[in-house]
Amino acid sequence: MNRRFLLAFLLVALVVAGGVSYLASSSPDGLDTVALHGCTENGEQLAGTCIAQNAGEHATAASPLADYALFGGQGTGGLAGIIGVLVTVVIAGGLFWTLRRRTPAGSASRSVRDE
Amino acid sequence: MRTAYSAMHMSDGLVNAPTSLVFGAIAIAGLAVCLVRARADLDERTAPMAGLVTAFVFAVQMVNFPILPGASGHLLGGALVAILVGPWVGAVCLAIVLAVQALLFADGGLTALGTNITNMALIGVFAGYGVAVALRAVARRSRGGLVATAFVAAFVNTVVASLGFVLEYAVGGSGGASLGAVFGLMVGLHALIGIGEGVITAATVGAVAAVRPDLVYLLRGSRPVLVRRAAPAAGGAA
Fold it and tell me: So which domain of life are we looking at (chain A) (predicted)?
């Protein structure tokens, strides 16, 4: 039961990152909209005065997954998202599994604490 | 050179270096506390759940939804993780998402990681959790109560997390817009994003509670009123 639930949860995450993400709005998000307030995007340049003009080039812009694309390839967002989900679940799952309290041998592992 | 600006989280350079350092220190200290406290909430049942919640937040953050013509929003996830896995584990979940995005996906600056973690993983999670705890009696009464609690907690976490950026801009913003404009725009836009955040959070928490209410942190310790099949054993003996 637990395994089936967890697999279903993982599947949902993979479908969202690998498929639904193609439906995402490409408009700037809330913070971006504020940062760009006062500027117009003129091709690659920002004209006017806005916060975003202070933004630096990203230090990991050369990453093969930069900007949610695989090696910058068009239409690879879903693949990049799937890789991201798998990387995230391994890092987070590994960390949390390492940190977990070990239940003493013999005690019921399914008991619910109610502190 | 690529100068077009597109990111989901704060980029490098929006606040000055001392401000980045201060909020980097706040993020590290806050996460250290969360890591210590998280242990008590992690066992062999909840640890895999927390790993998947992290991956789920990463996935859903990719899906920007439109809020106004030319503007979008995406899930932050503070209330979502706090309700499902608790605030201590939840803050670590979001910090992992933000670190993966910054390091691998060039989303959110490296020097801005401290401010992004402070805003979304610390302020957002604990604001959402505070609301969820305040409404816990409602959440435990019925599935509808839980879903409504999730919506309100998520709305509040979005708006309060956006105030984190306003604070950082006030402390050491690099300029380009007045503080008043930043405040008004951030709160206004994030009130709209908060509705989307509320819908996603309510749907997710409702779906988990429908099949595994025992995995919902906020419902821990409550009698299994949401588990219809697991009727309490009848009988007054013992």
Answer: Bacteria
